[in-house]
Structure formats: C-alpha cells, structure tokens
Amino acid sequence: MITYILIGIAFMFLFECFASSNKTKKYYKKVNKSYKEFGFWERTLGILFWPICLGIFLYHFFKEFFR
Fold it and tell me: What is the pTM of this model?
C-alpha cells in the first residue's frame, strides 16, 4: 500500500512540475485557455487515483498525437 501511495506522490509531483512550467503557461496564454493551480483536493485525488489519471492522460495524449 505504501508503494502505491509513493508512486502517486511521485506522479503528482512530476505532473505539477510539468503543469507549472513556463512552456505550459505560454501555451495556455497562446490558445486563450484559463490556467488554474492545483488545490489540496486535486492533489489528494491524483495521489489516490493515479492509475486512472494516468490512463486518462495517455488516452487523450495519443488521441491528439495521432490526430
């Protein structure tokens, strides 16, 4: 169980690093989409449900990649 939670923490850390990078913020400004910081509940749900979050991310990533 602790391994599952540690993987979730690492996953959310990497996701937040990516989401808060300057390139990502420039993209949001370029396409006029709003940018919102992660809150406590988003982090908690991301840690607990990281396999589902990863699956959703990969689905949408490959969907856009092969478009």
Answer: 0.56
